[in-house]
């Protein structure tokens, strides 16, 4: 896991930094849609860290890997499910 969701303070700072980098505005000035985009990018990055760790483990052990791709992860309304699956829902809920 990356440091994006290490704790509430780290999450809030990371969210603020990404909001400024993406929209050149503070979080308080963002629309709900803008916040959703920032959070979505953070979730995507976190999932990529986990994917890389899994690939490294598979490569290191020589084991086989089953890849299952579900289209449901492309839907924005499942953000909550993605956060729960990453184990960071409570942290994000308290940080926002």
Could you describe the largest sheet, including whether it forms a barrel?
A: none
Helix content: 55-70%
Overall geometry comes to elongated
Number of continuous helical runs: 4
C-alpha Rg (nearest Å): 15 Å
Enumerate the spans where pLDDT stays under 50 for 5 or more consecutive residues: none
- SSE order, as H and E? HHHH
Number of strands: 0
Count of all domains: 1
What is the averaged pLDDT score? 85
User: From the helix content, strand content and strand pairing, which structural class follows?
Assistant: mainly alpha
- Ends apart, CA distance between termini: 20 Å
Q: How much β-strand is present in the residues?
A: under 5%
Outline the structure in words.
This is CAZy families GT35 protein. The protein is mostly helical and 96 residues long. It has one domain (8-95). It has four helices and no strands. The chain has helices at 8-23, 32-61, 79-86, 89-95. α1 packs across α4 and α2 (32-61) crosses α3. It is elongated.
